[in-house]
């Protein structure tokens, strides 16, 4: 051993127990920490070297356990868990709060005209497309044509959904109209995520045994992973898009807000940000990142292959994505 720190620390897994909601919440508060977006390339590279050296059995002299875990979470915040490549900065989970608070705040503020709805839904779904691709599960790349077709399909579907809901809400009370962006985002997530991850649905995602030995690829696992991500994403949007409209509806009746209407957007963005700081990690924690399913739920040919190469395996594991 080339250092003082023990090599028995398992940094392949999160620091906290992922079998409990609180353990997963602590993990995702670290992963989604917005401050990680501000880290320099040098800091990210240093964390990558520490993590990869430690996995290879090399310990940096003087490295403490807390510093190792900090490096692991900095590394996880910027590098894809399956491919190891550095992720596009706005697609990282640490960028979720600052990006979503800005976009969602504007969606909730500028919802009254059709051009505004189209523009902000397009911006939101373009951002979501980047996030969904960046945080996909598996290590198989998408071609430019596949990526383009998925983006156009997802964004078009989301904008059409938003316009349809806006038209429907125009005949309802004003407070209901404020919730059109949330309904559109919820519906759009059901469209955008499967489209951006359609390659996984077609070819499957890697599944492993409990020792991380790869057993094959499963489309059934991909379906479960995508459903869990859709539920989490909609959950993230609930507080940020349901609470601020109620508060703003009350505030806009006050003389102060009538006198300074320019404050509408900043106040709305601030409220959304406050909600997202907590909603993002807590909703990511609804399901374990390393998800699992029974071998009996996999495709018949994959079940047969697993019985041949690993007959004692009854449960497989996979990265569900984020």
TrEMBL record:
- Mainly localized where? mitochondrion
Q: Which GO terms describe its molecular function?
A: monoatomic ion transmembrane transporter activity
Tell me how this protein sits in the membrane.
Multi-pass membrane protein
The lineage's top-level taxon is Eukaryota
- InterPro entries in the record, alphabetically? Mtc
Residue stretches spanning the membrane? 149-169, 175-195, 225-247, 267-287
* Claim: Membrane is one of the keywords in the record: yes
Annotated keywords:
Amino-acid transport, Membrane, Mitochondrion, Transmembrane, Transmembrane helix, Transport
GO annotation, biological process:
serine import into mitochondrion
A GO CC term attached to the entry? mitochondrial inner membrane
Q: Which family does it belong to?
A: Belongs to the sideroflexin family.
The job of this chain, per UniProt, is described as:
Mitochondrial serine transporter that mediates transport of serine into mitochondria, an important step of the one-carbon metabolism pathway. Mitochondrial serine is converted to glycine and formate, which then exits to the cytosol where it is used to generate the charged folates that serve as one-carbon donors.
What is the name listed in the Swiss-Prot or TrEMBL entry for this protein?
Answer: Sidoreflexin
């Amino acid at each position: 051993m080339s250092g003082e720190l023990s090599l028995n620390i398992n940094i392949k897994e999160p620091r906290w127990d992922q079998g409990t909601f609180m353990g997963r919440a602590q993990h995702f508060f670290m992963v989604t920490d917005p401050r990680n977006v501000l880290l320099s390339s040098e800091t990210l590279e240093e964390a990558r070297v520490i993590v990869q050296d430690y996995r290879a059995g090399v310990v940096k002299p003087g490295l403490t356990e807390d510093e190792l875990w900090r490096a692991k979470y900095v590394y996880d915040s910027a590098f894809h868990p399956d491919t190891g490549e550095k992720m596009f900065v706005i697609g990282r989970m640490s960028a979720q709060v600052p990006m979503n608070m800005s976009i969602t705040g504007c969606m909730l503020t500028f919802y009254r005209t059709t051009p505004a709805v189209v523009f902000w839904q397009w911006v939101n779904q373009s951002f979501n497309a980047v996030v969904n691709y960046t945080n996909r599960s598996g290590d198989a790349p998408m071609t430019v044509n596949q990526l383009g077709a998925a983006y156009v399909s997802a964004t078009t579907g989301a904008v059409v959904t938003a316009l349809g809901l806006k038209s429907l809400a125009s005949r309802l009370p004003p407070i209901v109209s404020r919730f059109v962006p949330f309904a559109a985002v919820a519906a759009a997530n059901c469209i955008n995520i499967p489209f951006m991850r359609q390659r996984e649905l077609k070819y499957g995602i890697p599944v492993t045994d409990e020792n991380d030995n790869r057993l094959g690829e499963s489309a059934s696992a991909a379906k479960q992973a995508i459903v869990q991500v859709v539920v989490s994403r909609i959950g993230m949007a609930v507080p940020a898009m349901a609470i601020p409209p109620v508060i703003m509806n009350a505030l806009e009746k006050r003389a102060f807000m009538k006198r300074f209407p320019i404050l509408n957007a900043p106040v709305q963005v601030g409220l959304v940000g406050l909600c997202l700081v907590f909603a993002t990690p807590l909703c990511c924690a609804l399901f374990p990142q390393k998800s699992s399913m029974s071998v009996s739920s996999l495709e018949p040919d994959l079940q047969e292959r697993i019985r041949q190469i690993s007959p004692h395996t009854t449960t497989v594991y996979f990265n569900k994505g984020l």
